[in-house]
Amino acid sequence: MPPRKIIIDTDPGQDDAVAILLALASPDEIDLLGITAVAGNVPLALTAKNARIVCELAGRPDVPVYAGCDAPLSRPLVTAEHVHGKTGLDGPTLPDPVMALQDRHAVDFLIETLRDEPSGSVSLCPLGPLTNIATALQRAPDIAGRIAEIVLMGGAYFEVGNITPTAEFNIYVDPEAADIVFKSGAPLTVMSLDVTHKALVTAPRNDAFRALETPVGRAVAQMTDFFERFDREKYGTDGAPLHDPCVTAYLIRPALFTGRHINVEIETRSPLTLGMTVADWWGVTDRAPNATFMGTIDADGFFALLTERLARL
C-alpha cells in the first residue's frame, strides 16, 4: 500500500514539532507533501520559522514550508507563550533554519495541491487553529469534496476545555474557522483532549526519548521537559499531555484509538462557551453525524510507536 499523502497545517509548539518528526520518521506510511504554518501557539513569523527548524532537525530540509494566515478570520489572535515559551519551541537550543520559506501562501498551496492531486488522495492534518483550512474552503469550495480526510487535533467533550472552562485552545482561537471546517462535509477525525490527556509524557517515557542519544531524541526530551512544567502544575498529573502527535500516530496505527461517529457543532456566539465543541456523544439530538470523535488511546502503544520511530531520525 503506498504511503498516505498528507499536508500538516501547524503552529509549532513543542508537541506540533513531535508530530512533524513522527511523520518524517514514517515514510512507509506517510508522504508529507508540505507543511503550512498558521498563527496560534505563537505568531506566524515564529510558527513558520519553527516548522523549518523541525524539518532541519530531522534532516529533511527538502520538505516545503509555507506561511499562511497571521490572524483568525474575525477575531484578535490569542497565543500560548505561557505554555510553549516565547519562541514556541523553548527547551532545546536549536539553530535558526537555513532552508527558505516558500514564496506561495499556504492557502494557495492547499488549494492548488488538492486540485492537482487525484480527488480523495490527500489528507489534511491540522494541529493548530483552523484558519488556513477554513480560508481555503471559503476561497475554493470545490476542494471540500476532494479531501480524503481531515484529521485534526482540537476540541473536547468529557475534558471540556484547557484555555477556557469550556473550550480547547485550537478551536477557541478561531471558532468561526472551526465552524466552517466542521460544516464542510469533508470526512473528519477529531483527536480531542479526551484522547490527548491520556497520552502523558511521564518521566520514564521522556527518559526513553533521551536514551536514544541522538539530536532528535535529546531535543524531544528537552521540549517535553519544558512544556510539562506548566501542564503538571495545572493538571496535577504525572506528565504533560502530548497532544498533536496523536494525529500522526492515528495515520500510522489507527487501531491505537477508539471513538464514535457523532455530530459536532462549534459554539461561535456565546461569551460563556465560545469555542466549545458541542459533541453529541450520547446521540440525544437528530443532528447528522459529521465527525469521528476519538475518546480513548492505547497510551503504551502510542509511546512505543513514537519512541521507535524517533529512533530512526
Tags for this model:
313 residues, alpha/beta, eight-stranded mixed beta sheet, two-stranded antiparallel ribbon, 12 helices
Any overview of this molecule?
- The structure is a single chain.
- This protein has 313 residues and is α/β, with parallel strands linked by helices.
- The protein has helices spanning 14-24, 44-57, 81-84, 106-116, 131-139, 169-173, 175-182, 193-196, 203-210, 215-235, 245-252, 299-310; strands spanning 4-10, 30-37, 65-67, 122-126, 147-153, 188-191, 200-201, 240-241, 257-262, 264-266, 277-279, 291-297.
- The chain is built from 12 helices and 12 strands.
- The strands form 3 sheets. An 8-stranded mixed β-sheet has the order 3-2-1-4-5-6-12-9, with helices on both faces. It has a two-stranded antiparallel ribbon with strand order 7-8.
- The two termini are 23 Å apart.
- 53% of the residues are buried.
- The mean pLDDT is 96.
Summarize, please.
Helices cover 37% and strands 18% of the residues. The chain has helices at residues 14-24, 44-57, 81-84, 106-116, 131-139, 169-173, 175-182, 193-196, 203-210, 215-235, 245-252, 299-310; strands at 4-10, 30-37, 65-67, 122-126, 147-153, 188-191, 200-201, 240-241, 257-262, 264-266, 277-279, 291-297. The strands form three sheets. It has an eight-stranded mixed beta sheet, with helices on both faces.
